[in-house]
Amino acid sequence: MAYYNLEELEVYQLSENFGDEVWFLIQDWDYFAKDTIGKQLARSSDSIAANIAEGYGRYHYKENRNFCFFSRGSILETKKLAQKSQKQKFNK
């Protein structure tokens, strides 16, 4: 099995870019939207890459796998919050 640097992993690069895009979109929201769903959405989208990085830094496979599960949870949370923001028409 080849060993990759964290920054070379495509899943990590995609999750980093996704988190940056979410922050960019939230900046245009009004104060109430930013303060409620916006903060939670920013945290959950950044948590995707953060959990991948933390798991990648763990020595044991099972620890790495657990952080992948945490990252998957952050993906689902982000998806739900994005749906909520669309429903509330924060993204115009």
From TrEMBL:
InterPro entries noted in UniProt: 23S_rRNA-intervening_sequence, 23S_rRNA_IVS_sf
SUPFAM superfamilies: IVS-encoded protein-like
Transmembrane stretches, start-end: none
Pfam families membership: 23S_rRNA_IVP (PF05635)
Protein name listed in UniProt: Four helix bundle protein
Provenance organism: Mucilaginibacter pallidiroseus
Lineage: Bacteria, Pseudomonadati, Bacteroidota, Sphingobacteriia, Sphingobacteriales
